[in-house]
UniProtKB/TrEMBL annotation:
One of its GO terms (molecular function) is DNA-binding transcription factor activity. PROSITE patterns: HTH_GNTR (PS50949). Pfam families: GntR (PF00392), UTRA (PF07702). GO terms for biological process: negative regulation of DNA-templated transcription. The keyword Glycosyltransferase does not apply. This is GntR family phosphonate transport system transcriptional regulator. SMART domains: HTH_GNTR, UTRA. Keywords: DNA-binding, Transcription, Transcription regulation. Residues 27-95 form the HTH gntR-type domain. Gene3D superfamilies: Chorismate lyase-like, Winged helix-like DNA-binding domain superfamily/Winged helix DNA-binding domain.
């Protein structure tokens, strides 16, 4: 399954039965809920990627108020056991995607190979003068016009990375329109005859996500992103793309291949 039109294949836990936590035991109700959900995951009743019922439904099933339920879910989120995605709900957290960095690094192929549905959307595109870093990477004069494309890529509807990509504007005219229609940088470059690009250089760093990254990746404050600066080139090793991808650090496992 490829492209942004694929429907994520997720399973709901709406049919899972929950008994009300015991009162008067000396163990807080929210802690009992945490332990119950942890046990259900450990014993396979809740599997990775499964969507939990809504807060209201869970509160009714456990026989507690929503404040108590939210404290339990907050604890599970902080422990990395569940993950809330705005507009979709709360899910049992999936294992990190094994993401190889090699000569041919293609997001859609990697995510599909992990058994998950890749998707993407265009955030913005614009023509801007090449900064010193972009000019050096693309071997262009400082200030020459470049096309910048910003995208969010996801797996099963969960945002994985937000990337900024720069191209020589005259060489990649209308690339942003192709990206918007396909949801894929690779397919857009293929339409321009540049699909066989290869990785020339990769640099990996890490830092705390900024406000825009937290919003686009649905991350709470304080979470880390892994930043991958990469240069991709054509068959003659001439740079055609400089990119800066920010990955939600707990959703991927980077594997650097020789």
């Amino acid at each position: 399954m490829n492209g942004s039109d694929d429907t994520p294949m997720t399973t709901s836990a709406d049919e899972t039965e929950y008994a009300a936590p015991a009162r008067g035991t000396g163990v807080a109700l929210w802690k009992q809920i945490v332990e119950r959900i942890e046990l259900d995951i450990a014993e396979g009743r809740l599997s990775p990627g499964m969507r939990l019922p809504t807060e209201m439904e869970l509160a009714e099933r456990f026989g507690v108020n929503r404040h108590t339920l939210r404290r339990a879910l907050s604890t599970l989120t902080e422990q990395g056991i569940v993950e809330a995605t705005p507009g979709r709900g709360t899910f049992v957290k999936q294992l990190p995607i094994r993401y190889p960095i090699a000569a041919r690094t293609r997001f859609s192929e990697i995510v599909s190979g992990e058994g998950r549905a890749p998707g993407g959307r265009l955030v913005r595109s614009l023509i801007e003068p090449a900064s010193a870093a972009v000019a050096e990477a693309l071997r262009l004069p400082l200030g020459q016009e470049v096309l910048r494309i910003d995208m969010v890529r996801d797996a099963d509807g969960v945002p994985i990375t937000v990337g900024s990509h720069w191209y020589e504007a005259t060489r990649c005219r209308d690339l942003d329109l192709l990206v918007a229609s396909t949801g894929s940088v690779t397919r857009a470059l293929e339409a321009l005859g540049l699909g066989d690009y290869r990785r020339l250089e990769t640099r990996i760093t890490a830092r705390v996500a900024d406000e825009e990254e937290r919003q686009l990746l649905s991350l709470p404050a304080g979470r880390t992103v892994m930043v991958i600066d990469a240069i991709n080139g054509d068959a003659r090793r001439q740079p055609i793309q400089y990119s800066r991808a920010r990955f939600a650090a707990d959703r991927v496992q980077l594997v650097v291949k020789n």
